Hints:
This protein is 37% helix and 18% strand.
Amino acid sequence: MSEDVSSDGLPPLRDVIAKHGLAAQKSLGQNFLLDLNLTRRIARAAGALDTHHIVEVGPGPGGLTRALLMEGAKHVTVVERDRRCLPALEEIAAAYPGRLTIIEGDALETDLKLLVSGPARICANLPYNIATPLLIGWLQTEPERPWYDSLTLMFQKEVAERITAAPGDKAYGRLGIAAQWRMKARMLFDINRSAFTPPPSITSTVVELIPRDQPLAPADARALELVTAAAFGQRRKMLRASLKSLVGDATALLEAAGIDGTKRAEELSIEQFCALARAFKSKA
Length: 284
């Protein structure tokens, strides 16, 4: 695929990678997306950029960073663990004076909300090896509406399907419940493996997550996590059996939540899991 470089005057990303010796490292979960037409599509999917502080995790040589700036982001803060990428990012910062802040660090150990002021959005092609832990951390930041207005994130398609799965879907499980309890989640579009350097073994998918004003149903976050972990830990079993690992005899818990113990975990709605979490919390 060709690279659109006419809009910012910076060198093609392949040249940037060659200049700075930025061969992708598997240990860091790196797969660089070089087609600026695709990265600009991701940037546009993130919504209004000129009204929000944009946070990007794992920018690498800066393909999405450039796209966000070209699409009008007022300010972008990037968090990059790989110090080899910092000179390339500094070149972008020089081309967009005052609009790019570069933080060297591990995103899993960085409190991103301390890096922003005002309304914020997170937009990132997440390193595959930390994508799920990052998302879970962002979901758990506050009990109510979080500090960001949206998440526009690229995942392996399998993970994207788990995040957005509905009850009864093969991919429905703990991650989807945790995400959809707090967020409205939908898959936006796929990106073929051939668009990356090096090509990953799977298709990638861009997912949009918008925080709900209130969680989908009342529940204690820790209780919901424990209930779903037990239920899906033995997902082939009926709930009266799978929940034994949590409460021993699950009969009273299921009755309190108004749920048929012969059902299996994938048959319950998120609201029903919240009812189980409330019943569990009340008996704890």
